[in-house]
Design brief:
The protein is of the alpha/beta class. It is built from 15 helices and 14 strands. It folds into 2 domains: 217 residues, Glycogen Phosphorylase B (Rossmann fold, 3-Layer(aba) Sandwich); 198 residues, Rossmann fold (3-Layer(aba) Sandwich), CATH 3.40.50. The strands form 2 sheets. The protein has an 8-stranded mixed beta sheet with strand order 3-4-2-1-5-6-7-8, sandwiched between helices. It has a 6-stranded parallel beta sheet with strand order 11-10-9-12-13-14, sandwiched between helices. It is globular.
């Protein structure tokens, strides 16, 4: 079986970002199948070219997986208009590139962005092959709810394309149970939709990984580390993290002054728990320059912007944390999403401080693997982190429960086996 995937955001383990499709390619290869990927020639987080092209595309072999890197107009951190131009550029170049791949059995399209899924549908339609639509986020609804998509023409086009793809897809694969409910509400037959969460690699992310090199690199040897790993964009509400950090910074300062008045012991020797907390932000995004300026304005010595790391380094990054943080804006649509980072946190045996309501909250509460904080509540976030920093036993217990739940229910190998079964059934029916 030969599967064609069109995904402009595909990354290898040597790049920053999500490597699920690379792992899928390796898994299918081990089962005697092939996943051929048409991807953009830019990394979606850094904006850096991943390969030198001399035409519309360039072919690579990464870990045994064939990857065709197609042209995309660079629009990282640009306005939404130029991002749409970028999406259209890849839609056309990926379509041309996809037709260079011979003897395929099924086409897998993934959204967002929705335009690359249109490319996948067109290739499948021309070749008379099954078209599996993978929905990772609900577009354009996420963009509309965030206020970044305001043009009524683009909104209407997005919603029309969404319905078009739902109708034309042979089958739809979703990574959140709420997405299935949403689509059924849009008139899609329930038996046309399969929910398979991504899960994570429980061998890659596990409690035995040593994160001390990251702590040493960042000077965090004796600190209580609160880790955030992911995009620094408008949706991620990093401002709430900064406000929580400011509250803890002020508390540390007040407590130190109070102790100095009552003792001759130095501030360093009498440093309180709040002063030991460090927020470490790994990632990049459009908001990063503004956030760094804001952190400097607030004089936040307890916040570290640690930059991006390739996926192969992320197990050590997560292992460097005492607790991990997942956060999004308080937007109703975000209650439908499963952030991939939460699965990695859980597999690594780290407690999650979750500032996202909805299905993600249900996951954390079902596993007893973390603490929920109401989105936007920086005061409660600061207080929660302070309490956790004082109770290492509780933190360790939550991390172990998270790991146990993840291994039982969300091992990526199990989820890839389920996906393989779906692919085989669609090809067999064709």
């Amino acid at each position: 079986m030969k599967i064609l995937l069109i995904n402009q955001a595909f990354v290898s383990p040597d790049e920053p970002g999500h490597t699920r499709h690379f792992e899928m390619a390796k898994f299918l290869q081990s089962r005697g199948h092939e996943l051929v990927i048409v991807a953009s020639d830019l990394n979606y987080q850094t904006g850096q070219r991943t390969v030198e092209r001399k035409g519309v595309f360039a072919e690579q072999v990464i870990g045994g997986a064939r990857v065709f890197r197609a042209y995309i107009y660079p629009a990282l951190h640009h306005s939404y208009f130029w991002r749409v131009i970028s999406f259209f550029s890849f839609m056309f170049s990926s379509t041309w590139t996809a037709f260079q791949v011979k003897d395929i059995d099924l086409v897998l399209g993934t959204t967002p962005p929705i335009f690359q899924a249109v490319s996948a549908w067109f290739v499948a339609w021309i070749r008379r092959k099954p078209f599996l639509l993978e929905v990772r986020d609900l577009w354009p609804e996420f963009g509309v709810s965030m206020g970044v998509l305001k043009n009524p023409i683009m909104i209407a086009l997005g919603r029309w394309l969404e319905k078009f793809l739902y109708r034309r897809a042979t089958h739809i694969l979703v990574n959140s149970p709420a997405y299935k409910d949403y689509m059924v509400g849009k008139g899609v037959r329930e038996n046309k939709i399969t929910f398979i969460p991504y899960g994570t690699d429980v061998d890659m992310f596990n409690p035995r990984v040593d994160g001390s090199s990251i702590r040493n690199e960042l000077g965090l040897q004796d600190k209580f580390v609160v880790l955030y790993a992911g995009a620094l964009g408008q949706a991620n509400d990093i401002d709430t993290i900064l406000r929580a950090a400011e509250r803890l910074s002020h508390r540390a300062h007040r407590d130190s002054e109070k102790k100095l008045k009552n003792s001759a012991v130095s501030v360093a020797e009498k440093d309180d728990e709040a002063g030991r907390i460090r927020f470490v932000l790994f990632g990049d995004g459009k908001e990063r320059p503004r956030l760094q300026v804001e952190a400097e304005r607030m004089n936040l010595s307890n916040v570290i912007f640690a930059g991006v790391r390739p996926k192969k380094d992320m197990p050590r990054v997560v292992a460097s944390a005492d607790v991990c943080l997942a956060i999004l804006q308080d937007v109703p649509m975000f209650r439908t999403t499963y952030p991939n980072k939460v699965f990695d946190y859980m597999a690594a045996g780290r407690a999650t401080v979750l500032v996202i309501d909805g299905v993600s909250r249900q996951l954390i509460e079902s596993s007893n693997g973390g603490v929920f904080v109401q989105p936007g509540d920086d005061e409660m976030l600061a207080q929660t982190i302070l309490e956790l920093s004082k109770d290492s036993h509780r933190v360790q217990q939550m991390g172990q429960r998270a790991r146990d739940y993840l291994v039982k229910h969300l091992d990526r190998r199990d989820k890839l086996n389920e996906t393989l079964g779906l692919l085989e059934s669609l090809v067999k029916k064709n």
